[in-house]
Amino acid sequence: MLWTKEMRYRNYRTITALEEKTLLENVESSIWRQHFHIQPPYGLLNDPNGFTFYNGKYYLFYQWFPFGAVHGMKHWYQVESEDLVNWVDHGVAISPEYDHESHGIFSGSGIVKDDLLYLFYTGNKRDENWNRYASQCLAVMNAGNELTKLEKPLITGQPNGYTDNFRDPKVWQTEDGYYMIVGAERENHTGCVLLYRSDDLLKWEFQGELQTDRQQFGYMWECPDMFRIGGEDVLLISPQGLEPDGDHYHNVHNSGCFVGKLDLQERRFHGSEFQELDAGFDFYAPQTTALPDGRRILIGWMGLPDTAYPSDGDMWANCLTIPRELQVKDGKLYQHPVKELAQKRKNMIEWQDTLTQQEVVLDQFSGKTFELICDITAEKGTAGIKLRVGEGEETVLYLDLEKEKLVFDRTKSGVPVATEYGTIRRTAYREKSVSFRIFMDTSSVEIFVNKGESIFTSRIFPKQDSIGTSIFANDGKASFILKKWDYE
Ligand code: FRU
Question: Ligand 1: does its nearest atom lie under 6 Å from the Cβ of 276?
Answer without folding.
Answer: no
